[in-house]
Design a protein that fits this description.
About 45% of the residues lie in helices and about 10% in strands. The chain is α/β, with parallel strands linked by helices. It has a 7-stranded mixed beta sheet, sandwiched between helices.
């Protein structure tokens, strides 16, 4: 019997006792049918709701990601040893969006990093990475070929979801109406449009971390850190937190504790609009605010370690401090802004 979306919808919507998990192929077919516009809004909303109540397995997540990737508008990227990260696709609404500061420091330390996000997405509809880049003067929706060139030239690139997977725009109205997180939010954070072998993935809840790490391994990712970042973003919180490390086929727990490296705990900075976030990123890179600097150092140190430019997080933080003090980070943002300017 051929795969049929209606049959899959019934399979996941039979309640806690009667529903069953989908295979990887079934999940890939389901998301493909949704993205291709073959299902009406009612069936899509029912499927997203049923999956939220049932819960998503690592096999289903791998299938959903595979179905999405089959539709990416991405060229072949002939680069190795670069990191994929994702700013929270629904943005940040309670805290200042600072993840770009750590990312730029890591790039100045020799990492190559691709980041991606959406904009104005539920449930938060907050300030997203693309919004901060726009406030810095960067076009956040440049074509994917240009993004590849920017990665090669500056070690940093950003790609907007509407550019690499425009079909997702069809779901905006449904997602707005539902107003809750679905498996799509998790898939977006793990989307990896450039096909990087190294990922930093943030999830909304700790119990998703191992599931997402297993899915990343199934997608041939060699090295990943899965975190519960600030508001589910790719910013490492400046406080003790649990994470999961995937490295060469092994998954293990990882403790991220800034106090271990002499950095005092700090709660996230209160919310600010995209313009204020852009100013804070520049302030961190110019060392104008010690609290912002410490946040950026810890975030960058983890990313430098993840990118294999340091043997430990402590060494990563020291490298981050070196590029800050030598003004290489400030030079890197100017190079990036010049190359990416609107």
């Amino acid at each position: 019997m051929g795969t049929d979306f209606g049959r899959l919808l019934k399979a996941v919507a039979k309640g806690k006792e009667g529903s069953r998990n989908l295979t990887k192929d079934e999940a890939a077919f389901a998301i493909g049918s949704i993205l291709d516009g073959k299902e009406d809004d009612a069936r899509v909303a029912a499927f997203l709701t049923a999956m939220r109540f049932k819960g998503t397995t690592d096999e289903e997540l791998s299938g959903f990601l595979e179905g999405m990737r089959q539709r990416y508008r991405m060229p072949q990227v002939n680069l190795t040893n670069f990191i994929d990260t994702a700013g929270a696709y629904d943005g940040r609404k309670r805290t200042l969006h600072l993840s770009l500061s750590g990312t730029i420091i890591a790039c100045a330390a020799g990492c190559r990093i691709v980041t991606h996000s959406g904009s104005d997405l539920p449930p938060k509809k907050g300030v997203a990475t693309g919004d901060v880049l726009e406030a810095l003067g960067v076009n956040s929706k440049y074509p994917v070929n240009e993004a590849v060139n920017m990665l090669q030239k500056t070690g940093f690139a950003f790609v907007h979801e509407s550019v690499y997977l425009p079909e997702m725009e069809r779901l905006r109205g449904i997602r707005n109406s539902l107003g809750f997180r679905s498996f799509i939010n998790t898939c977006e954070m793990a989307a990896n449009p450039f096909g990087a072998k190294i990922q930093l993935i943030s999830v909304a809840h700790e119990h998703f971390m191992e599931l997402v790490a297993k899915s990343a391994m199934a997608q041939n990712v060699e090295r990943a850190i899965v975190i519960t970042g600030v508001e589910s973003s790719d910013e490492i919180p400046l406080e003790r937190s649990e994470a999961v490390l995937l490295d060469n086929g092994e998954i293990r727990q990882l403790l991220l504790d800034p106090a271990e490296y002499g950095l005092p705990y700090l709660k996230p900075e209160p919310f600010g609009d995209a313009k204020r976030c852009a100013g804070a990123v520049k302030a961190a890179l110019s060392e104008a605010d010690k609290g912002l600097v410490n946040r950026a150092l810890f975030d960058a140190g983890v990313k430098i370690f993840l990118g294999r430019k340091a043997d430990s997080i402590g060494q990563g933080i020291e490298k981050a401090r070196e590029v800050l003090e030598s003004k290489k980070a400030a030079e890197k943002i100017e190079e990036m802004l010049s190359a990416h300017a609107r």
